[in-house]
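Task: sequence in, structure out. Protein: YdbS-like PH domain-containing protein.
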Amino acid sequence: MRLSALSIPYGAVITAARLGWLLVIVSFGSARVPGAGPLVAVAVVAGALALAGAYQFARWRRFEYRLTEDTLDIDSGVFSRRSREIPLRRVQNVDTSRNAVQRALGIAAVTVETAGGSDVEADFRYVSEAEAERLRAEIGRLKRDRGREDGSAGAAEAGATAADEPVEEPLFAMSTRELLLLGLVSVDLRLLSLFSAIVPIAAPSLAREAVDPLFSLAIAAPLLAGIVVTVSVLASAAFSVTNYYGFRLSRASDELRYERGLLNRYTGTVPLSKVQSVVLSENVLARRLGYAALTVETAGYAPGDSGAESAVPLTRRDRAVELAREVEPFGEVEFERPPSRARTRYLIRYAIVGLLLTAIAYGIDRFTGLSFAWYGVAALVALAPVAAHLKWRNLGFAVLENHVVLRSGFWSRETTVVPYYRVQTVIEGQTLFQRRRDLATVVVDTAGSRGLTGGDPKALDIEADRATELRETIADRLQASLGGHQAERRRTRRSELLAGGDD
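Result:
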């Protein structure tokens, strides 16, 4: 089978649009040549579209795919040929996306992720909406068939036939109130830093242009900073609202299905059998309002995806916990906090940082032409005890029967629930400063974690003896849970063989 024929003109226009900056430069440059400006610009645009169209046609002609009972076979490549056979049992996620133009044309982009893949295994740009739905449904059905044959636990519900499409059970639909609250609480600090780069550039110019001498840099900079913050908040809110507009979550057999987006519409699946952990996220504002987001992590996502899918972007915290238990049935959680000397460690650390920043501000004021109230930075030292207490208060861990739960973060607090059988490694470590205070950190790594250097859930700054005990407990329960899962799979396989023999 081939991609949709509409992918040729659509891809050509997109490719030419990406060269828009080059077209602008050529147009301005040719404008200086008498009588050549419009002709050159038109020729460049026509040439870019022709080349892009030729490439997209060749790509369309050389892209073929077949869906067999066991594999998804793809032949592609314009200049170098590539043939792939993707085993369906390794497929984890089949996601589709459609922006406003694609929806008008009736096409969609489909991506296929596999377990352990370092990149997207298959990228269909673009197929018809009907074909996108067929691919998702057929891959799901064939995976369930292979699961029944292999005896995989949870591969299919009892009584389902090979041709059955699992009945979707609605789990969550985002209300208008929750959508508006999401726009309020989900301020993207990266966007704020981007807009903030304008302040040191525009503020001096604004002050020089002012007629009123009282309108100095001291007034212009805070005014512009306020405008930047307002624009950043509004832009971030608009992005969140359009990104999660119409969010719906449902469950079908052994997978979660989601749909979201206003301008760009996304649909996809999250296989429950591949979930590595569930994460409750609450930034400081959402936490004050009693709201939280739910994220599930699965193995097999490309590097830019970090293995994370937002299962619920925002809802009341009790509802988020309830939905988290739909994915991983964990019990009540009572957190154990680090010892109070860990809080003292944070106090010393933050106070030193505050003193260093104060010294730098004083040096700039004293030895350069820039003059400002450097002593205002010293307020950071006074805030060090508050910051240390808030960091300590939001740390904790809990050892449950089938899960370990780890919590950290103040500005954005994350509570991670990890089933023992999904643990890859357990690492106990001590820094030089931790050893001086008899503290240690235990890192719990899963296949869906974001790397051993940073995004893994951890029990931070706990008693050194307790860290050793926690590491050994998790390791022991990992082995016990793996044995239990293997025994369950063997029992399921034997039952299916016996049932087949009776037939």
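Residues 152-163, 302-308 have pLDDT under 50 and may be disordered.
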